Amino acid sequence: MKTLKTLALGASTLAMAASASAEISDGVVKIGLLTDMSGTYSDLAGPGAVEAAKMAIEDIGGTVAGVPVELVTADHQNKADIAANKAREWGENEQVDAFAELVTTSTAMAVFEIAKQQNKVVLVSGAASSPLTNDACIPSGIHYTYSTTALANGTGKAVVAEGGDTWYFLTADYAFGQALEADVTKVVEAAGGKVLGSIRHPFPASDFSSFVLQAQGSGAKVIGLANAGADTTNAIKAANEFGLVAAGQSLAALLMFITDVHALGLETAQGIQLTTGFYWDMDDETRAWSEKFMERTGSMPSMVQAGVYSSVSFYLKAIEATGSDDTDTVMEWMRDRPIDDFFAKGGVIRSDGRMVHDMYLARVKSPAESKGPWDYYDIVRTIPGEEAYGTLEESTCPTK
Questions:
Q1: Is the same domain home to 101 and 165?
Q2: Helices 105-118 & 175-190, crossing angle to 10 degrees?
C-alpha cells in the first residue's frame, strides 16, 4: 500500500512538473542582455551588468518553474542597428524571452521596436530617456532604474534652489542627452531660472576643450552636463583644466555614477551633487549584496548594475509564480505586485512601464570626509518616487 501511494505521489509530481514546463516555451527561460562591453558606458554597465544578471539567476537556483534559466549576452557598441539586429536574431532564432539592460537610449528604443513586433519583455536598466515611458513606450517595456525626469527633479531642482538660476548645457548629441537637457530645462524655468544656451558634443567624445570654453564664455552660473560615463568624466577634467569652477561657475553633473566618481577621484569630484537610484552603503541589505558584487567584479555596483539584478530577479519571480513565460501573463503579475528588495522598497510598475521607486540626492564627499575606498556619498535627501518620476496622468504613453 505504501509503495502504491509513493508511486502515485511520484507520478503526480512528474505530472505537475510536466504541466509547468509545458507553459514554458521551448522548455527553457532565456534572457538576452545587450550592453556596452568596452565603450563609454562599460564601467557603469558592461561586464558588471552581465555579472549582476548571472547573480540573479544563481540566487534563484538557476531554474524557474522547473526549467533552466539561460543568459545570452552581446556588445551592442552603443549602436541602435547592432542592438536591433541582435535582438531580432535572438527572438527569431534563439527563442529569447526577455531583453535586459540596454544602456544608451538609442539602443533601448531600437530594441523596443523589435520587442513590440515579437511581444517580448524588455527590462531597461541603463537607458535614461523619459520618452521610454512616454511616446516611445510599449506594452511589454519596463523602464526600471532611473530616468531623465528623475534626474531633473533631483539634481536640477536642487541646484536651482541653491541659487543656480542661469544655465548653459553641454549635451551629448543623441536622444538621451537631448531628453535630459529638455527635462532639466523644464525644471529650471518652472523655478524661475533661465537657460542661456547649449552646445552639443559628439557621442562619444574625448576632447572637450572647445565645448568647455564655449560654456565658460556663456557667463551662466551653472554648466549642466547632459551626458554620462566617460563623457562626463572627460568634461569634468577639461572644466578643471580651464579653471571653470575656480573662476566662479559651477558644474551640474546631471547623470553621474559611482564608477565616474571612482575614476575621477574625490579630489576632483568632491562637492558635486547627483541623483541616484541606488547607493551601496545605504543599509545592511545594500551592503551585503554590494560586497558580493565587489568580490566578483572588483568594484562597487552602479545603480544600473544593481537595477539589472533587481529587474532580472523580479522577472524570474514572476515566471516562478505563474508557471509561464508568456509575456502578457508575466507582465500582469509584475504590475500587480510591489518590488521589495535591496534595490527598491515598495517599487511599483505602472501601466506606462515606469518602475516608480525612491531616488536619492547625494553629495560627493571630500577626501577628508571619506572613511575608505568607495565611501563616496552623503545622502542629502530621499526623493519620493512620484515626486521623482511624476504621476501616471502626466505620462503621454499611448497604451497606459
A1: no
A2: 110
How is residue 50 written as a grid cell? 552581465
**202 and 349 belong to one structural domain:** no
190 and 211, same domain (yes or no): yes
Residue 278's closest CA among 259, 302, 296?
302
Rounded CA separation 247/216 (Å): 9
| 162 and 109 inside one domain | no
Does 186 map to a domain? yes
Indicate if 264 and 198 belong to the same structural domain: yes
Taking only the tens place, the pLDDT of each residue in 311-340 is 999 999 999 999 999 999 999 999 999 999
Reported as a single tens digit per residue, the pLDDT across 104-139 is 999 999 999 999 999 999 999 999 999 999 999 999
pLDDT (tens digit, 9 = 90+) per residue, 221-253?
A: 999 999 999 999 999 999 999 999 999 999 999
The residues, any chain, with a CB within 8 Å of residue 221's CB and separated by 6 or more, are 163, 164, 165, 166, 167, 249, 250
Sequence-distant (≥ 6) Cβ neighbours of residue 289 within 8 angstroms: 301, 306, 309, 342
Domain extent, residue 303, equals 26-146+282-357
Contact assessment for residue 147 and residue 129, using Cβ atoms and an 8 Å cutoff: yes
pLDDT of residue 23: 86
* Number of structural domains found in the chain: 2
Q: Is residue 321 part of a domain?
A: yes
CATH number of domain containing 234: 3.40.50.2300
